[in-house]
Please model this.
Amino acid sequence: MRRRDLIAAGPATLLAGGADAAGPRVQAATTIDVRRDFGAKGDGVADDWQAIENAGLHLERLGGGSMYFPAGRYRMTRVGKNITLRNNIRYFGDGHASVIIGSNAAFISPNGAAFGRSSYAGYRYFTVSDVTAGDREVAFATASETNNFKPGDIVLVRSKDAIVTPGDVLPYYVELNRVAAISSNRLILEDAIDDGWQGLVAANVTQDIVQEYCIEGLRVECEDGYPFFIQGSYKSFIRNCWTSGMALACFNGFVRSAAHDIIAEVTWRPDKTSASVFEIETGCIRANFHDIDVYMAGAARAGQRYPVFYCQEFSRRTALRNIRIAAAGTDLGNVFEVMSGGHQFDSIEVTAKSVDKVLDYWVREPERYQLGELGLTMSNVKVDTSDPSNGFAHGFILHNDHPNGEVQNVTIRDCDIRTRSARPDRNLIWFYQGRQKNIRLESVRGAGQVAMNISAGARPAEAPAAALAFPLTDVVLRNCEFTRLASPEMLANASYVDCRRLAGPPAGIAAPGTIWAADKPRVQLAVPLRPETTICCGDVVTIRISAWSEPQPFPAHLRIRLLGADALTIDLPPSSSADVDLELAAIFFGGAFHQPERFTLSGPVRVRGSSAPSWTSYTGQFERRSANLVEVLCWIDKPAGLANGLIIRTARVELREVERGA
Model:
């Protein structure tokens, strides 16, 4: 029997149950040793592919089992001769001592990893009913059509709509599920469908999907390829492995499956093809990756800095958790390149020489993609770059590049980008294109601005000339830290709660009980508005002072000097107690948003025990220079050495950014 026919026939026994936390339910009673039982050498020289292939075919005939690789180096020397995964088989070894050496790939799925965009056009399809989230069945037109399935088969339910290019079909929606039972014209599914769709066809793809395998306790080396190139998995596990190669894995149709507790070495070489470290392609549903350490080295060929994490078109509900990327000497491309699909990323740490973008997130055209509301949740992401001249180009970018497109339901929280380079044009958060709705950014920090595109050139033709090209709705930034807002439109179109600018000056504070007792004019508090500090129209410098003194025979003086000009002086006469309270605000205005030209100082001045000064406000010019100081001076006209002075209750000078009150 030809290998292809054998695989298409399927295992003798198909287990209909799901994989649980303990892993696939392979038939552990049958364990074979590839060296003892099938003649593999494991010496790192001989080609062991045929022995491993024979062992796999043997277990397949039995309906599953365990394939043991005792300590050794099992080499497959020929391109395309890889370990084919088969249903219900556990592939395991003695940890680091059991080494699989692949050529272009080490482990692949049935039929030469055929499942995926290059194979969608070749299946026999039947029109089926629309599905909604939570459904556990698929209805065909007639009962005779369900005769093409049996319990244990894998059914592909996909959208009729697809992106079609020569040799490539990319459906907008893919659901892979296992048939639990058949009732008349309906397939009863093993798992509930997560996301609904209208306009569907279905096919039997059992021959291209490997079910409930487990790979564990092996070192997998594939210098010029993928340790795991698996295009079609159902409820399977890869765990407790060590890998090396140009990537970690390329998965297509990795459904309700997991890879975890892996240590990977990834090397990019300019004379070789590079790849994404995690390539999660179409058909992946509820793929789970966690507790993985990746050590990267080398450099990619020009134009081939692929994303580290690539959630490709139409994968859905991917979970990434507890993953560390150590690439301190490597220039990376995008860290995350993700299409909407309800993905969840948590606790990701990346160290690199530089990165292009941290997140490039987009949504497909709403006329054809029905799941645009499936958003993204990203939390606890830390990116640290070391290149002093670059670091990162942009941080978190959200966009929809189609007319009437909309980015929805994105939450990014507790994310920090550290860099040693300063670039005024860098965007930390960029609402790049398309309408944006229900976006939450909480505790996002990094040396970049918050920006949105307002270009008239990208505005839909039907929009009025004065309208924003890409309006924001229900967009909230909370406790974020950034260099500045890029425009007044960005200020007006989002809500800001407890946000601050990284380059803003520290507050000037005097401790309660401090005594200001100088006998000549002395600066007691000073806050510099340095040239590198971004001051925007609407920013406010607040000055709050509350002080008192016992009766004394000497006059006291309190002065506010703003940007070199004496804006307010309070003279307290002798022979009386004094109680002074100031609540002043200097507001910047005029000129461009990032280049205000003037300021006005105003606010109440209360003096008890003496007459209050005649005071309304002070207006002055704002020029950017190193001498831009906000100063509070205090002195007493007394002989040197006497202790008389003003006693401070509160004294605080700080810059309050305009977005704090937005």
Notes: The mean pLDDT is 88. DSSP finds four helices and 51 strands in the chain. The helical segments are 3-9, 49-62, 110-113, 488-492.
